[in-house]
Amino acid sequence: MKIPYAALCVIMVVLLSEAHLTKAVTCSPQELSSCFAAFTSSAPPSSTCCSKLKEQKPCLCGYLKDPNFSQYVNSSKAKRIASTCGVQFPNC
């Protein structure tokens, strides 16, 4: 049995999409340690910081609700870093 090329492409796109959507993010504020320099100075965030921030984006509301982290995550410096990295600050 031959599968048409277009059908094979559609199947591959669906499988890859599902694999991407089910990839779980481990929420860990330590993952944002590469943003420390940008947070403690006026230095722009590094590319590593931006990558980690984008990776941790699904976790930001949780950090905002956690009293141990909310004062840092909700600060003007954190919002500047998010903006510079192109990460929309969440409205939780």
From TrEMBL:
Recorded GO MF terms: lipid binding
Domain of life: Eukaryota
GO biological process: lipid transport
Ranges where the Bifunctional inhibitor/plant lipid transfer protein/seed storage helical domain occurs: 27-92
Pfam family, one: Tryp_alpha_amyl
Signal peptide: 1-24
Keyword Acyltransferase in annotation: no
Alphabetized UniProt keyword annotations: Lipid-binding, Signal, Transport
Name of the protein this chain belongs to: Putative non-specific lipid-transfer protein AKCS9
Organism whose genome encodes this protein: Vitis vinifera
